[in-house]
């Protein structure tokens, strides 16, 4: 999961986008388009520099956005990009994207859960873990599987603002802290 710091401003933009997408049943479309937009910005350092540069006029930035995205993304998505640029919030775009995804998942009763294990889990173990998570969290689970060999054994679960660490590494660290008191 991303370690993006989310501001209230990002939440407001994401909420506005969700409120405009939901009645039109365009949430999935907007999520896909937002990812494509982010990939475009991530693939071009020059584009990021121009959009972040306060000496480049807002008019010129919007002209560039229209050239790149005009006719390729929904008008509401393009309007969001323009609003972000007009308010000099380009650096919030990743955070807005993350918030939008989280809000949409919550609306659809889904949760992204990062599951970290010391080894690659087989499909049977993954299914059992997903089943338990679905039961405990009462949500559809969107797993992100990761490997961290330093865990020794056990699992770490990250979702929302929670971290559940059942790894041997965590237990050894807790034991060490207890002994050093």
The CATH superfamily label of the largest domain reads N-terminal domain of the delta subunit of the F1F0-ATP synthase
Instruction: Just name the CATH architecture of the largest domain.
Output: Orthogonal Bundle
Calculate the terminal CA-CA distance, rounded to whole Å. Answer: 33 Å
Q: CATH class of the largest domain, please?
A: Mainly Alpha
Residue share in β-strands: 5-15%
Mass-distribution shape: elongated
Could you list the spans in which at least 5 consecutive residues all have pLDDT below 50?
none
**CATH topology-level fold name of the largest domain:** Peroxidase, domain 1
Give the count of helical stretches. Answer: 8
What is the ordering of alpha helices and beta strands?
HHHHHHEHEEEH
Residues in helix, %: 55-70%
> What structural class should be given to the helix and strand makeup?
alpha+beta
* Strand order across the largest sheet: 2-1-3-4
* Rg, Cα atoms, Å: 20 Å
Largest sheet, described in full? 4 strands, mixed
How many β-strands, per DSSP? Answer: 4
Query: What is the domain total for the residues?
Result: 2
Overall mean confidence score, pLDDT: 91
Describe this structure in words.
The chain has 181 residues and is an alpha+beta fold. It folds into two domains: 8-105, N-terminal domain of the delta subunit of the F1F0-ATP synthase (Peroxidase, domain 1); 109-179, no CATH class. Helices cover 58% and strands 13% of the residues. The protein is built from eight helices and four strands. The protein has a four-stranded mixed beta sheet with strand order 2-1-3-4, sandwiched between helices. β3 (156-159) and β4 form a beta hairpin. α1 (8-21) packs antiparallel against α5 (75-86). The chain starts with 7 loop residues before the first helix and ends with a helix. The mean pLDDT is 91.
């Amino acid at each position: 999961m991303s370690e993006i710091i989310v501001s209230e401003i990002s939440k407001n933009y994401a909420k506005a986008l969700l409120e405009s997408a939901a009645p039109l049943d365009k949430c999935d479309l907007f999520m896909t388009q937002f990812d494509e937009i982010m990939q475009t910005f991530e693939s071009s350092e020059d584009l990021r520099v121009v959009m972040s540069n306060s000496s480049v006029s807002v008019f010129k930035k919007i002209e560039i956005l229209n050239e790149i995205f005009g006719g390729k993304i929904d008008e509401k998505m393009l309007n969001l990009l323009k609003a972000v640029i007009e308010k000099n919030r380009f650096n919030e775009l990743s955070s807005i994207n993350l918030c939008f995804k989280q809000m949409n998942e919550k609306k659809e009763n889904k949760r992204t859960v990062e599951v970290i294990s010391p080894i690659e889990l087989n499909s049977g173990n993954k299914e059992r873990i997903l089943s338990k998570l679905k039961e405990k969290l009462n949500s559809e689970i969107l797993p992100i599987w990761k490997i961290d060999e330093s865990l020794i054994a056990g699992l770490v679960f990250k979702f929302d603002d929670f971290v559940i660490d059942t790894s041997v590494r965590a237990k050894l660290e807790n034991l060490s802290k207890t002994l050093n008191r």
